[in-house]
Amino acid sequence: MIDDTARLLGELRADPSLAMIGHSLDYYYGDAGRAAAMDAFYRRFVRPGDLVFDVGAHVGDRVASFLRLGARVVAVEPQPPCVRALRRLYEGRPVRIVEAACADRQGSVALHVNSANPTVSTVSERFVRAADGAGGWERETWDAEVTVRTVTLDALIGEFGAPSFIKIDVEGYEDAVLAGLSRPVAALSFEFTTIARDVAARCLDRLAVLGFTGYDVSLAETMALDLGRWVTGREMRAHLAGLPHEANAGDVYAVTVSVSSMRALTRQ
C-alpha cells in the first residue's frame, strides 16, 4: 500500500490540472515521522471499525491516518482538485468522498479559493475580511470563487451513520458546520484561528448545547494536547482568548464521555 501511495502521489504531482495542490501533496504526505505522530495522537479518539467524518479533508492526510487506525471514513471536501486527488488516492478503500462544503443548511455557497495556498480556501467571507492586513496573513489572496453544494452533519449522519469522531477544519466556518449538528458524538475537533476567535466562541456555545463536557487544545501541528487535562467550555474560552496573535491556529478537541474516560484519553 505504501508503494501504491507513492506511485499515485507521483502521478498526481505530474498532472497539470492538479498543480495548485502540488505543495499540499508534498507537505502532507512527505514526512513519515509526522504521519506516525498523527497516528499516535488520533489513536486516543479512533478505534478499529469506527466511522470517522473528516470535514475539510483537503488532500487527505487525516484520511490516511484514520485508515491506518482501522476506521471507515467519510471525507467531505468542496475543492474540485482536492476531490480528484482524494478519489485517486483512496479508490477501493473504505472511504466515502462527498464533494461539498459542510454548513448549517443544505444548498449551495460561494467558495473563496486561494489558488496559491488552497489549504486556506474558505466559504467564510468574514474569514477573508479578518485575514486582510492581519499579521502573518499578508501574502494570502483569495483570487477566485466557485459555487459548491452544501451538506449538513445531520444529513451526513442520516446517510452514513453516526461517527465516533468528527474532525472539522474549514477556515473560519466551523460555527456554521456545528450549527448543522443536532446530536452529540463521542468526540470531535474544530480548528480555530486567532484572527477569528469569535468563531471559536460560537463553536463552544454550540457544543455546550449539544452536551459536550470536556475540552483540550492542540496548537499548530504539534500532535499533542497542550493542557493535558479536560477543562470546561468556560475555561477553554478564556484560554483561547488569552493566546497571543502569533499562536495563529490550532484545534480544539471536545468530548462527551465520562470524567474517568476523559482522564484515560488524556493519558494516551
From TrEMBL:
InterPro entries from the UniProt entry: FkbM_mtfrase, SAM-dependent_MTase, SAM-dependent_MTases_sf
Pfam families: Methyltransf_21
Protein name: Methyltransferase FkbM domain-containing protein
Originating organism: Paractinoplanes deccanensis
Transmembrane annotation, as ranges: none
Domain Methyltransferase FkbM: 54-191
Signal peptide: none
